Amino acid sequence: MQKQEHLVYLKDTYKVSHAWACSVLSVSRTSKYYQKKMPAKDAQIKTMIEQVIGCSRKGRNKVICLVKKKYPHISGSKIRRVYELEGFSLYRRLKRRVKDQPANPIVVPLVANEEWAMDFMSDTLENGRTFRTLNVIDHFNRACKGITIAHSLPSGRVIYNL
């Protein structure tokens, strides 16, 4: 179909003959006169699809199964081709948007030292020994209140540092 559009464009804009435009685009000159034979065959399949669909919404796979059940001699590929060409395809339903507002929004404190956050991190040294860090951060201004680094951080030490 695209070559035919290019052919028409060449003939209209440059006022050249049909034969010359066809030779430039490597298109057969007889393609201008060719009439597809498919619409005659497709009319029967189209009526079969319309009978099956009726006035309800049915997708392609369901329509193919129903038509094949009623008319077993017709292949699924023909049904699919006619279904798509004749515009029986359903539009895709849009997904519902997820609300941007969380159920429990985080409340930012209004003054310093009202709320702190603590976090443990761990890493491994080159010799294989692990160490942990306790980080305490103020939520109001994101200031670091303290970092404690040790190979072992028992609960008594964590409470002491807080």
In short:
By secondary structure, this protein is α+β, with helices and mostly antiparallel strands. It has helices at 2-14, 18-25, 38-53, 60-70, 76-85, 155-161; strands at residues 116-124, 130-138, 144-150.
Residue share in β-strands: 15-25%
According to DSSP, the number of beta strands is 3
Q: Describe the oligomeric state of these chains in a short phrase.
A: single chain
Main sheet, how many strands, which sense, barrel?
Answer: 3 strands, antiparallel
Describe the protein in words.
The protein has 6 helices and 3 strands. The protein is α+β, with helices and mostly antiparallel strands. It folds into 3 domains: 2-32, no CATH class; 38-85; 116-161, no CATH class. A 3-stranded antiparallel sheet has the order 1-2-3, with no helix packed on it. A hairpin with a 5-residue loop joins strand 2 and strand 3. The longest helix is centred in the N-terminal third of the chain and has 16 residues, at 38-53. The chain is elongated. The model has no long low-confidence stretch (mean pLDDT 87). InterPro entries: RNaseH-like_sf (IPR012337). This is Transposase.
Please supply descriptive tags for the structure shown above.
Transposase, elongated, 3 domains, 162 residues, RNaseH-like_sf, alpha+beta
Write the layout of secondary structure elements.
Layout: H1 2-14, H2 18-25, H3 38-53, H4 60-70, H5 76-85, E1 116-124, E2 130-138, E3 144-150, H6 155-161
Antiparallel strand pairs: 1-2, 2-3
